[in-house]
Write a structure and sequence with these properties.
Elements: H1 3-14, E1 20-22, H2 23-28, H3 33-41, E2 45-49, E3 52-55, H4 64-72, H5 79-84, E4 90-92, H6 94-101, E5 111-115, E6 126-130, E7 138-141, E8 144-147, H7 149-158, H8 163-175, H9 181-188, H10 202-213, H11 217-225, H12 228-238, H13 254-269, H14 273-277, H15 284-299
Parallel strand pairs: 5-6
Antiparallel strand pairs: 1-3, 2-3, 4-5, 7-8
């Protein structure tokens, strides 16, 4: 087969899986290993890892190696075919999953995958976790099946990852408003007792992780109350002359303390508060409805 015909035969595969092709996929299209090597020598293919090549014209991507490892674990199947099956048996997990989500500062390697059956790889630097994952614990990121952020955080805790680093992952997920707090508490429940909490008290464990990450409600509300924008709203809506020195100065005037306390209580009771404080840089427009709610409840 000529060079031109070899490349054309690979297009159907590479065009649908990030420019990548496994040796077995190439062989299924009539292209031998030695032909792949010649294509590499001519600069038409780049070798990503053993058994996986990339179309040189597709450019490089920071996820090339991770995708290549995922592909080579089932080298004869295409990415599209595996994902179309509806339930992928090889799922990115652990610190690799947190990296793929874009949360925290954990390194992605060694690459970690959850698999439904025992698998062996000739590639170094892989961690395989054999287990069944419920469909709700798997999502897609950058075209790869990955554990949801709730399952990822719990996996990191179970693996005894540095709690401050887990907190960083949680912090970023909260800011991105992509975390289900009820699900997180549920998943943390079996780990509660081993981590110093009452048996099955996943809610307390969750709140502690939120505190460590600086994402708990009290910390976030304090940040909001200390912003110049909030002080301006407070002056305008509550008609209070607030000091310019910040929240700590409210203690000088008992009436102001009452107003701020009521505002705080009203905000904490609001269903939309958790979503609002997910980003401490919330805009003035986002703050206004909660401020109004606080004003009205404080007058009742």
């Amino acid at each position: 087969m000529s060079v031109f015909n070899s490349l054309r035969a690979l297009v159907d595969v590479t065009s649908n899986q990030w420019g990548l092709v496994t040796v077995k996929q190439a062989e299924a299209h009539g292209i031998r290993r030695d032909q792949l090597s010649r294509l590499e020598q001519r600069g038409l293919l780049d070798r990503v890892i053993r058994g996986v090549y990339k179309d040189a014209g597709a450019g490089s991507d920071e996820l090339d190696e991770l995708r290549a490892h995922w592909l080579v674990l089932e080298p004869g199947a295409t990415a599209a075919g595996r994902l179309a099956a509806g339930r992928e048996s090889i799922v990115v997990s652990g610190s690799t999953a947190s990296y793929l989500h874009g949360y925290g500062d954990l390194q992605p390697s060694p690459f970690e995958f959850s698999t439904t059956e025992r698998r062996q790889s000739k590639h170094a630097g892989l961690r395989m976790r054999r287990r069944e994952l419920a469909p709700r614990d798997v999502t897609l990121r950058a075209g790869l099946p990955v554990t949801t952020i709730e399952r990822t955080i719990v996996d990191l805790v179970a693996d005894h990852e540095d709690v401050s680093l887990v907190g960083d992952v949680l912090r970023d997920a909260v800011r991105a408003r992509s975390i289900d707090f009820a699900v997180l508490a549920q998943y943390l429940s079996p780990l509660a007792r081993a981590n110093g909490f009452a048996k099955d008290d996943g809610s307390a464990f969750r709140e502690r992780l939120l505190e460590l990450s600086g994402s708990d409600e009290r910390t976030q509300l304090t940040r909001i109350l200390n912003t110049p924008a909030f002080a301006e709203v407070l002056r305008a809506v509550l008609k209070v002359e607030t000091p310019s020195t910040g929240m700590g100065a409210f203690g000088d005037a008992p009436a102001e303390v009452v107003l701020v306390t009521r505002l705080l209580a009203s905000a904490l009771a609001s269903p939309g508060f958790r979503a609002l404080v997910a980003d401490s840089a919330a805009s003035l427009e986002e703050l206004q409805p909660l401020v109004d709610a606080g004003m009205y409840s404080s007058r009742r």
